[in-house]
Amino acid sequence: MSMAPRPTSTTGRWVTIERCLEASPSRVFRSWSDPDELARWFPVRVEGSLAVDARTILTWHDRRIAIDVIEADPDRTLRFRWHWSPDDSYVTEVTVSLEPLGYGTQLTLTDGPFDIARPGVLEAWAEALEGWGAALSSLRAHVDFAVDIRDRC
User: Fewest CB atoms less than 10 Å from the CB: which of 24, 28, 77, 87?
Assistant: First the structure.
């Protein structure tokens, strides 16, 4: 597992996380790209289609996050913009890359850049590090073991 930030400048930071999953790339891709599947392991509800060029709202018990899917290459890549603020004043780009690994999948997630010189962005970067780590643990539980480990609060 790698969670090291990838700097792009003196103030730019990235989140990069790798996971080896036992599920096939098609199963993992479907878990990200199908709204019903995504809602089984990540948000409580998905409002929208997760289609390229669509705005989708991910809803949890305590917040709503807008994402815009910008690329979907089945079984290989999903890219979307993650809106950190309701007014779209801060947005990062998330890329989920999938590679076959034996009978399973090597997943690499990147999110950024986080310009930590901007007010509040250091906190967003820290939240992304923690949040994506937890989310990918939940994804693994879902695709490899068919269990939901999300906190219900």
Answer: 87
Burial of 97 (0-12, 13-18, 19+ CB in 10 A): middle
**How many angstroms separate the CA atoms of 69 and 34, rounded?**
12
In this structure, the number of other CB atoms found within 10 A of the CB of residue 98 comes to 24
Buried b (16+ CB within 10 A) or exposed e, 116-135: beeeebeebbeebbeebbeb
CB 28 within 8 A of CB 143: yes
**DSSP symbol at 151:** -
pTM of the model: 0.91
Between the alpha carbon of residue 145 and those of residues 17, 20, 27, 93, 148, the distances in Å are 20, 14, 13, 29, 9
For residue 147, the number of C-alpha atoms closer than 13 Å in the C-beta half-sphere is: 5
Is 33 within 8 Å of 50 (Cβ atoms)? yes
What is the per-residue pLDDT across 86-116, written as a single tens digit (0 to 9) for each? 888 999 999 999 999 999 999 999 999 999 9
Query: Rounded distance, CA 58 to CA 65, Å?
Result: 5
